[in-house]
Amino acid sequence: MLIRTERTAEWRRYFHRLFRRMRADYRRGEVDPAELKRQRAIALRPIVRGLCGVVGSYYIIIFISHFFYETGMDLPIMASLAGLTSLASWVFFFWTRGTENTHRLEISGLVVNLLMYINVVAYQSLHFEPPKLVYFVLLTLVYATSAVSLRVVLPSSLVAIVTMFFMAHHAGYPVLKQHVWVGIAGIVTAFGMAGIMRTTIFRAVHARVLADKHRHEAQVLAHYDALTGLPNRRSFFTELDVALIGATRGHAFDLALIDLDGFKPVNDLYGHSVGDALLIEVGKRLRAVVGDGGVVARLGGDEFALILNRQRSDDALRRFGEDLCDALRETYLLGGGVCANISGSVGFVHSEPAAQWSASQMLERADYALYYAKQNLRGAPVIFDRRHESEMQDFGAVDQTLRSSDLESELYIVFQPQIDLRAQRTVSFEALARWQSEKLGPVRPDIFIRAAERSGLISDITLILLRKALVAVRDWPADMRVSFNLSARDLRSLPAIRRICDTVRLSGIDAQRIEFEITETAMLSDLDQALEALALLKGMGSRIALDDFGSGYSSFGYIHRLPADKIKIDRSFVTQLLRHESTVKIVKTLIDLCGNLSLDHVIEGVETAAELRRLEEIGARYIQGYYFAEPMRAEAIRAYLTAESWREGLKQTG
């Protein structure tokens, strides 16, 4: 008894593990239950419709055969049942066409099963033949292979087998004995076949649904940004190609590129989780502003793109851009109580079907407008126009020429003096880059410097110009400094800064005589990286000047973080000195600020005696401008220092 109990327990554990494994197979991988049910119905539909079609055809034959084999009242009974079964089967065959409803399939299968059962029962009731009791077993096999679910198989099979046993019992014990084991084998076989078939079908359906889900997820990942849920670069270019085709048919549109200003410092300060939350919020704000009027995509990092379905006028597009920038500028309340403030620069370009631009050409123009915005109007929109087209073409020619020129021989330096009004002498010279191209002739500095920055050649050019400047410094008085401009790319590259330091050391010039000028925009593009670069320069002993102060953000909030020795006040203030008294107050405030922070100041762009006189009145000390001297070649400096001809003009202003 104990052995039997243990064996029963073992069998129970075995079936329990088998059941759990089957359930696990069904549940492996998260799938939508409704979709799984729909796909099961689709998989089972051909089986049920096949049953209906076969039974409908079979009973047409049976209907006809009854007219040959039946007589009397048996004929109308059997013919009617056969005809009804055939008709009902074909009705269900068409009723289930295209259905994805499991209940409809179950009803169809159950009714057809019932009609087949009634036909067999009627035949045996009218013409009982013990050997044909096996038809009930055959019915259970049909039920097992064609029914949608076990709740259809179970009652149908049990009714058929019980009916067989009942009729066999009435026929006598020998007949019953003969059919008992046949019935048991039939019911076991039916349930076994039903379980195996449905398990196989349902596993296959589950695997297909799971594969479809993974394929859909892969497609989503291939076309959408995983972080923000916006279309990604690949999807964006697909949409852009479609938009360009539409533009040739009269459906003009606008394209925009957006780059966030100040994102990297937030990301570096608070970590990637906060940076990710910020990008998600940016995506939401962009979608809110664009609405249904276009496509918002994330191209990567902190760069986004817009395809605006309806082309706007320049004024309307500029207003839209301002709304966009205003939305991006609002304070971001992120997790952990973090408040972040960033802005976004936007470059727009109108589609022009006549120009027949490709996607990359149109994107290049939007990118140029964005570059212009970041260089000149950070945090504001810029629309690509004919002037930008001309500049871009010039940049293209300049870029190609830069790459193929002997820059060592073609680049040179001119120097403009910086004057100490109290000491009435020149104390420093700013080194200014010039390029006399063999192919293009003289090229404006703003053009070739920007082209070099975009092409990545600027670091090489910086080293060439720095070496030339240091050679000139050797002939100057030992107390005279040189100011040398560094680009944003130089500051973003620690290897480039190290090469600059090595160049200074190899020159033999005292590093304290070298003042490196940096711009506000160069600092703000990556403040932490710039601070690290400036620390290397300061560690060498060089001075740091903040150039063009006032032309950009003029943020006093970060000045205390800079290892600056001097602030250069932008010439845009000088041009307004004699027109607006408020400008005079601003300049005086800046001069006082420098004094309070123990910083030197230099005021750029002084060109007239009246401007100089006004600056002297408000306490300006260091001046630079055409009033004193134009930029000069290195060989002209000795004569300039000897003459210091500007002193006569300075005395006349007193």
UniProtKB/TrEMBL annotation:
Q: Does the keyword Acetylation apply?
A: no
The cross-references to Pfam families, in alphabetical order and at most eight, read: EAL, GGDEF
- Membrane-crossing ranges are 47-69, 75-95, 107-128, 134-167, 179-197
Domain EAL: from-to ranges: 395-645
Q: Ribosomal protein: is it a keyword of this entry?
A: no
Residue stretches making up the GGDEF domain: 251-386
Give the keywords, sorted. Membrane, Transmembrane, Transmembrane helix
Q: What is this protein called?
A: EAL domain-containing protein
* Species this chain originates from: Asticcacaulis currens
